[in-house]
Structures are given as C-alpha cells and as structure tokens.
C-alpha cells in the first residue's frame, strides 16, 4: 500500500527512488518514440534505461529478464496491447511500477489501466522534466498525472464527457425545473467518517486540508485513508478518488 500522505495533485512532489536510481524498461511500438524517451531520461536523476520493447509480448519477456523498477508502457501496440501486457504483469505478480503512455485518443482505456494497477499516466508529448518526475514518482510508489490526464480521469469516473458535459440526463419532476441529485448514501462497509474523508480526497484535498475541514488530526486522516484503501481495494489516492466518484461521491 502506498503512502496515504500523498495529495491528489498533478504537481505532487517526486517520491524516493530505489537506491542507485530506478531501472526503467521502455515499451512502445515506435522506435523513434523509444529513442526520444531514452534521450530524455537515461542518466537523469540517477535513472537508468535498462532495455526496450516494441510490443506487449516483448515487454513481458524483457521485464522477466531485466526486472526493471519502472516500465513506461504504451497503450496501443501490435501483437499485445499495453493493457493486455499490464494485466499479464499483474497476474504473474511482477512488482515493476507501470506508467502508461497515452496520446489521448484512448480515453476509454484510462480507467481500465488504472484499475489494472498502473501507477500513473504520461502524455507522449510531456515536457522532459515531467517525464523524469513521473519515473521517479513511480519508483517511489507515488502517482503522478498531468493536469490534462487527471481532469479526464475524474470526468470519466464521474460519468461526464471529455468536454465536461454530463453523460446523464437532467433530473426533473412535476414540481418544477431540474434539481441536483441527493447526496449518495454511505456505501456498505464504510463508516460515515471514512466516506467523508474519501469524498474530500476526490475533491483534491491533501491530508492537512482534510483534517482542517473535518477537525481531525493528520494522523487520524491517515488512519481513515488506510482503512479506505483496504476496504475499497485501491493502492493510491487517484484510484481512491475515482472509486469514490463511481460510488456516487
């Protein structure tokens, strides 16, 4: 389980990389993309690119051979897609942290990949420092999302379209115009306080802010977050936020 201190923010501070720097496997079907990523990150902040793969099946083979700390994994590839490779990695118990690469024509795959165990998402045209930070965060067990990716993830989880419009019809009744739906009840298995904490995480608040809002100590907030992670079977704050939104929070 990752550190519940971490805020749901696109600019979260980088995590602690493994001793000696994270070892990275690059996976993309475009050789030019792999070369560009290697130039961007190899040697930066102790990062070592230990291998490359051009499709999902090759990624599985190289991951087993090289045992990287982090895998930069493209979503769309021939022979085996990134999502299929991610599922196979998790099924066999591979502990490498996976950062999914997306060109943003794959909105439907974002939530699937996150539920499947991806730590972060990275745009293929991300600035160099953002790529480095994403690798370091992943190596330290921290989720990092660009503002664009995070915005899309939250909208998808909340059932809204990419343009921010609602995917659900307006609620109307004979008494008058549309009205906002009632707040969702506390999901079975959670306490009211845990649900409050979860909803504030989904709004992007960090632990100190949640503590101030609910008049709790940061240590108590962390305790509630740990229980939420276990009960909702998530491993980071972004997964928790999305799960809360799915439950109506």
Explain what the structure shows.
With 249 residues, the protein is an alpha/beta fold. It is 43% helix and 10% strand. The chain contains 10 helices and 5 strands, in the order βαβαβαβαβαααααα. A 5-stranded parallel β-sheet has the order 2-1-3-4-5, sandwiched between helices. The relative contact order is 0.14.
Secondary structure topology:
Blueprint: E1 23-27, H1 31-41, E2 48-53, H2 56-66, E3 70-74, H3 82-91, E4 97-102, H4 107-115, E5 120-123, H5 128-139, H6 147-157, H7 192-202, H8 207-214, H9 218-232, H10 237-246
Parallel strand pairs: 1-2, 1-3, 3-4, 4-5
> Quick check: average pLDDT?
80
Principal-axis shape equals elongated
Strand order of the largest sheet: 2-1-3-4-5
Order of helices and strands: EHEHEHEHEHHHHHH
SS-derived structural category: alpha/beta
The profile of the biggest β sheet is: 5 strands, parallel
Cα radius of gyration in angstroms? 19 Å
Instruction: Tell me the β content.
Output: 5-15%
Helical percent range? Answer: 40-55%
Distance between the termini: 22 Å
The count of DSSP E runs of length 2 or more, i.e. the number of strands, is: 5
Low-confidence runs of at least 5 consecutive residues: 1-17, 160-181
Oligomer: single chain
Briefly say what this structure is.
By secondary structure, the protein is an alpha/beta fold. Helix content is 43%, strand content 10%. The two termini are 22 Å apart.
Give a quick set of tags describing it.
10 helices, disordered N terminus, 5-stranded parallel β-sheet, 249 residues, alpha/beta
């Amino acid at each position: 389980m990752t550190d519940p201190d971490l805020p749901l923010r696109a600019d979260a501070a980088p995590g602690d990389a493994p001793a000696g720097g994270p070892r990275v496997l690059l996976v993309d079907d475009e050789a030019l993309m792999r070369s560009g990523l290697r130039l961007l990150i190899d040697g930066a902040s102790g990062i070592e690119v230990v291998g490359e793969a051009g499709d999902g099946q090759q990624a599985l083979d190289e991951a087993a051979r090289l045992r990287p700390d982090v895998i930069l994994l493209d979503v769309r590839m021939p022979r085996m897609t990134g999502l299929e490779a991610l599922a196979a990695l998790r099924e066999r118990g591979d502990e490498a942290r996976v950062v999914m690469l997306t060109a943003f024509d794959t909105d439907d795959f974002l939530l699937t990949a996150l539920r499947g165990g991806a730590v972060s998402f990275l745009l293929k045209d991300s600035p160099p420092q953002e790529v480095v930070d994403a690798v370091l965060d992943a190596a330290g067990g921290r989720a990092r999302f660009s503002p664009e990716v995070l915005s899309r993830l939250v909208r998808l989880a909340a059932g809204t379209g990419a343009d921010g419009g609602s995917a659900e019809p307006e609620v109307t009744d004979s008494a008058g115009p549309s009205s906002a739906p009632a707040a969702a009840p506390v999901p079975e298995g959670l306490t009211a306080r845990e649900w409050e904490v979860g909803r504030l995480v989904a709004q992007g608040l960090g632990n100190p802010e949640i503590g101030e809002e609910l008049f709790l100590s940061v240590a108590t907030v962390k305790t509630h977050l740990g229980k939420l992670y276990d009960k909702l079977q998530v491993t980071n704050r972004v997964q928790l936020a999305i799960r809360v939104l799915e439950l109506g929070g």
